[in-house]
Design a protein that fits this description.
Shape: globular
CATH architecture of the largest domain: Sandwich
Strand content: 15-25%
CATH superfamily of the largest domain: Jelly Rolls
């Protein structure tokens, strides 16, 4: 959704995951603009305010929100805390917050359903600080904010140019997981290479069970969370196992497996199959990045593979 309005009232009513009221502290200088990508449980929202404002709001029941300014960092204050380019705001459901922007500001928020947040935390409980689920906070991000900003730009671009690519069940699920992973990696101090697992399990057995899951669900999209549940193991332990035995994180390994699965599907494509329909089965939503990775690993763009396959199958 994209909204451009001359008055703040319409802008205020369209905000996702929060409910509140603007008070203008300066004369309006420009239109108000809002872009939203709704991934069915996770929503990214980019706003450009038309004036300096004070916003008093409350997180809606059922949603957590992360907030970061895109401009005017030094003139933005959240709950009495001045911002800079490293700071982020975290808002929990049903808790009031106040955002004071002396000048017209632009910002990014991510609203996440409580169900998805709790599900994410449940398989990472040995490294997740559950205190963040109960109170608002302003803190320095543990990592560079660039990955979230890059991901948000890609999602807004795809939403504006080809939303049908993004809004199918597989693509939405993949995008939701990617957004949440980036958000919480910013909040959490994670060091998988040096973190000791809480439960001492046989790593070979964990890896064996993980690979068996991948072989069983060969035609389905599998995520790190699925491996954790199948092996009854925390994500930290799974990461240690994959780094120890396979030399890469589970996320990278699963990405490579997905590329191989798509390559196999292209090689066995039917006459009505398209790259879009094949990728949808594997939860791919960012075609530009996917095509680059595919060529990096296999030396040819997926569309070229598909064209060659259909040509060779012609009588």
């Amino acid at each position: 959704m994209q909204l451009i309005c001359s008055e703040f009232d319409e802008f205020e009513e369209a905000l996702y995951g929060v409910q509140g009221q603007y008070v203008l502290r300066t004369r309006q200088q420009r239109d108000w603009q809002l872009s939203v990508v709704d991934l069915n449980g996770v929503a990214l929202m980019s706003g450009r305010e038309g004036a300096g404002t004070v916003y008093t709001g409350i997180g809606l029941p059922g949603y957590y929100n992360i907030f970061l300014p895109l401009t005017g960092h030094e003139s933005t204050v959240v709950d009495g805390h001045s911002f800079n380019r490293r700071r982020i705001g975290w808002m929990v459901p049903n808790a009031m917050f106040h955002i004071n922007a002396k000048n017209p500001a632009s910002w990014l928020t991510v609203a996440m359903s409580c169900e998805l947040v709790l599900r994410w935390a449940s398989v990472r409980e040995d490294e997740f600080d559950f205190c963040v689920l109960h109170r608002n906070l302003v803190s320095n991000a543990q990592r560079n904010l660039s990955p979230l900003l890059w991901l948000a730009r890609r999602l807004f671009h795809i939403e504006a140019q080809s939303p049908e690519v993004l809004h199918n069940e597989g693509a939405e699920e993949a995008a939701r997981r990617e957004v949440m992973d980036v958000v919480f990696r910013m909040l959490l101090p994670v060091d998988p290479l040096h973190a000791a697992p809480r439960h001492h399990r046989d790593h070979k057995e964990i890896l064996k069970r993980a690979l068996e899951l991948l072989d069983t669900l060969e035609s389905q999209t599998v995520y790190t969370e699925d491996i954790c549940q199948a092996t009854c193991t925390s994500e930290r332990t799974v990461r240690n196992v994959f780094n120890e035995y396979l030399g890469m994180s589970p996320h990278r390994y699963l990405m490579i497996r997905r590329l191989h699965g798509i390559r196999d599907a292209i090689r066995h494509a039917g006459p009505d199959d398209t790259i879009t329909s094949i990728c949808a089965r594997f939860g791919v939503w960012d075609f530009g990045r996917f095509a680059g990775l595919y060529r990096q690993y296999f030396g040819m763009l997926p569309a070229q593979w598909l064209k060659a396959t259909k040509t060779s199958n012609q009588p």
